[in-house]
Design goal:
16% strand; 9 strands; 6-stranded parallel β-sheet; elongated; single chain; alpha/beta
């Protein structure tokens, strides 16, 4: 396997980028692409915007709550655990590692990943939708608890929407919407992501359809800097002619890869 050989040969920085396909084996749907159960069809993409939130905040919150509730009780699968093990292997031998996930399900954290960026936000946090509030972008957020959503769950009306405890404006999910920028909030850490892409000697994508901006930025930067790029994707899609594709599910390919890696020499 070319990826195995690259990892054994190259101890330089390793960047791993995951998408929704990594969580499929945990019972979660894919988000983009032609798959019949993809969440992000065109109609939903239009709803996943700040513009739509202000047009119909109750419907926006209702849709997101249903999706967030679908994450309850989900557990990491072998792909998540293998990624955590790959990080431990890389760092034990003295190499740099960063995981960039497009997922908002927090399953990488649960599986034990330590060095990661959740570039699209998290489902367990919210922030103020106002512009000048301390709990709003570009730095503010707070933990989402059920007390703030109790009234809205009982009756999904605009009058029952969750409100900011600081200024009284509407709260919103702490996620990146389609009409927003990666640099719109410090939690998305886009500068850190791009620095890692510039330094990486190996870039591995797993379970992503390459449909969002961050993957294009990483591919372009990695190729320009001479990194070796790999993609684990059961569909076998080729995002770029210089990306080596492994046409297997992440929950199968990643554990197999990790099981073959030699015991690292600690430095």
């Amino acid at each position: 396997m070319a990826l195995y050989e690259q990892l054994c040969r190259e101890t330089g920085p390793l960047l791993l980028v995951t998408g929704a396909g990594v969580s499929v084996a945990s019972g979660l749907p894919v988000f983009r692409g032609s798959e019949p159960n993809a969440v992000w069809n065109q109609r939903i993409i239009e709803r996943g915007t700040l513009k739509y939130f202000w047009e119909d905040p109750a419907e926006s919150w209702s849709w997101y709550l249903d999706r967030f509730d679908a994450l309850l009780g989900r557990k990491p699968n072998p792909a998540h655990h293998a990624i955590a093990a790959l990080e431990a292997w890389q760092t034990t031998r003295g190499g740099d590692f960063l995981l960039v996930t497009q997922n908002v399900d927090a399953l990488h954290e649960t599986a034990g990943s330590r060095s990661y960026v959740e570039v699209h936000g998290r489902t367990d946090r919210v922030r103020c939708a106002a512009r000048e509030c301390e709990l709003a972008a570009p730095r503010g957020s707070l933990a989402r608890d059920e007390a703030m959503l109790k009234a809205f769950r009982q009756e999904r009306t605009e009058a029952n929407l969750p409100r900011c405890p600081s200024c009284g404006e509407l709260l919103r999910p702490h996620v990146l919407w389609f009409d927003e920028r990666y640099d719109g909030h410090v939690d998305f850490q886009i500068a850190r992501v791009l620095r890692a892409a510039k330094r990486a000697r190996t870039i591995l994508f797993a379970g992503t359809s390459f449909s969002v901006g961050v993957t294009a930025m990483i591919v372009e930067t990695g190729l320009r800097r001479g990194a070796k790029l790999f993609s684990i994707d059961p569909s076998g899609r080729i995002p770029h002619q210089r990306v080596h594709v492994i046409a297997e599910p992440a929950e199968e390919a990643l554990p197999t890869l990790v099981s073959r890696l030699p015991k690292p020499v600690q430095r």
